[in-house]
Amino acid sequence: xxxxxxxxxxxxxGNNPTCQAAxxxxxxxxxxxxxxxxxxxxxxxxxxxxxxxxxxxxxxxTETPGARSRPFDVDPxxxxxxxxxxxxxxxxxxxxAGRTGDPHQWINRELHGWWxxxxxxxxxxxxxxxxxxxDRFTRRxxxxxxxxxxxxxxVIHPQPAGIAMTDGAARYVxxxxxxxxxxxxxxxxxxxxxxxxxxxxxxQDWGDDVVVATKGNGERYGESSLPFPEFLSRxxxxxxxxxxxxxxxxxxxxEVARVEQMARASWASxx
Length: 271
Description:
The protein is an alpha+beta fold. It has helices spanning 2-6, 19-31, 33-46, 76-95, 104-112, 134-145, 228-232, 253-264; strands at residues 50-53, 56-59, 119-122, 159-166, 172-185, 191-196, 224-227, 235-240. α2 packs across α3, α2 crosses α4 and α6 crosses α8 (253-264).
């Protein structure tokens, strides 16, 4: 437990499809460690963890096929807690069945905590899988996170986000959960997004000259980073504060077009 609290960005999902749970553990270790301690106590003592979803209790004790398997190649805290989180995550997904849009816009704020932005924007139409109003999506992300367009507002708490993972040939691999830690200038005055990637191989080549860095650009322990446009080119979902609108119309059209070109050259090539 001390190791997890001391290294919130050192938590990894191992060789397991549990990026949502790994991200949650990292967020609580970073922003709400007393809550994480309580969850570990519930899981270890009671073999049950209870959350609420829009006011209704959701228990990890409920039978959810395939969701209570124990992960391997992970830290002891993850080994104890992740099966419970996976069960709750699956149930929250079921409660969102039939809603329009990506279920993570509701799940993320109920699973992760009060600090998750109430607003949520998507780059794709869930029903068709096609890009939808990518210009608006790009400008809103700039206005929410880029200091030049959001009145210099920093990231106060890590925010969940969804990326379209691509391989070294820029081919789409799948959706992946990460968290945005901060946005800042690096040592060469390049604006970068510093983020937590629960995948144990955080320094990855995502193709089309988008190569994730883990050192040499002001990264803190466990952080990955990319220049702002490159990161945005792989983003498909993010949260924001609806009361902090920023200045989306001030983002240069050429920058917006560049981001869309990188997206369409990779994961969105057929969208």
